Amino acid sequence: GSGVRELQARLRQLDWLFDGPTGSYDDLTEKAVSGFQGKRGLPRTGRADTVTWQRLVTMTHRPGRWELYLMGGQPAAAPDPRCLTGRVLCIDKTSRTLRWMTDGRTLSTMSVRFGSQYSPTREGVFRVYWKSRHHVSTLYDSPMPYALFFSGGQAVHYSYDFAARGYAGGSHGCVNVRDEQAIASLFAQVRVGDKVVVSW
């Protein structure tokens, strides 16, 4: 849960964990806690007891939202009012999420990444005008599988880089999805002409 996610984020700050927080107390987390305990002269239980937690808190800072959700998975914000009618890809830059909605009902939600400050993802209301399953960017010579184009060369698509590096990188303006199964399912459902709302 959220407590485990914060524990993992704090362990990452001290280089005891390298993967993004997952919220699950797995073997890697237990090993990291045990290593931290041993280094500090505490009993190596692998469990974050009160003494271990207090020591960890004094050595780290309170994790920010993006430290807690480095690889995505943060809760989606309430949908933009423009997303409440029809078939809509409702994309929220604040929570970094994409909701696939029909008449106000959320069918699926996925983590997304946007363009960098030099090539930002456009905000506004658009329509999907082209679908390309095996697209390769002619401008950047990079694969854009499951591409749903909505504004010029900007599209929602699967990103190998996002899947590997999380929010450490950025796109050239596209909306990147890191869950290949989720984008494959979305690609199969979305039709040319469906609405796209990109908002803060």
Reconstruct the topology from this structure.
Layout: H1 2-13, H2 27-39, H3 50-59, H4 65-68, E1 87-92, E2 97-102, E3 105-113, E4 124-127, E5 130-136, E6 143-151, E7 154-158, H5 160-165, E8 175-177, H6 180-189, E9 195-199
Keywords:
alpha+beta; 200 residues; L,D-transpeptidase catalytic domain-like; 27% strand; elongated; single chain; nine-stranded mixed beta sheet; Muramoyl-pentapeptide Carboxypeptidase, domain 1; 2 domains
H/E series: HHHHEEEEEEEHEHE
- The CATH topology label of the largest domain is L,D-transpeptidase catalytic domain-like
Tell the overall outline: elongated
Strand content: 25-35%
CATH superfamily of the largest domain: L,D-transpeptidase catalytic domain-like
Strand order of the largest sheet: 4-9-1-2-3-8-7-6-5
End-to-end distance: 26 Å
Largest sheet: 9 strands, mixed
Radius of gyration: 20 Å
- Structural class, by secondary structure, is alpha+beta
User: How many individual helices?
Assistant: 6
CATH class of the largest domain: Mainly Beta
Number of strands: 9
Mean pLDDT: 91
CATH architecture of the largest domain: Beta Barrel
User: What share of residues is helical?
Assistant: 25-40%
How many separate domains make up the residues?
A: 2
Low-confidence parts, pLDDT < 50 over ≥5 residues?
none
Write structural notes for this entry.
- This protein has 200 residues and is α+β, with helices and mostly antiparallel strands.
- It has 2 domains: 2-68, Muramoyl-pentapeptide Carboxypeptidase, domain 1 (Orthogonal Bundle); 81-199, Beta Barrel (L,D-transpeptidase catalytic domain-like), CATH 2.40.440.10.
- The chain has 6 helices and 9 strands, in the order H-H-H-H-E-E-E-E-E-E-E-H-E-H-E.
- The chain has helices spanning 2-13, 27-39, 50-59, 65-68, 160-165, 180-189; strands at 87-92, 97-102, 105-113, 124-127, 130-136, 143-151, 154-158, 175-177, 195-199.
- The protein has a 9-stranded mixed β-sheet with strand order 4-9-1-2-3-8-7-6-5.
- The chain is elongated and about 60 Å long.
- 32% of the residues are buried.
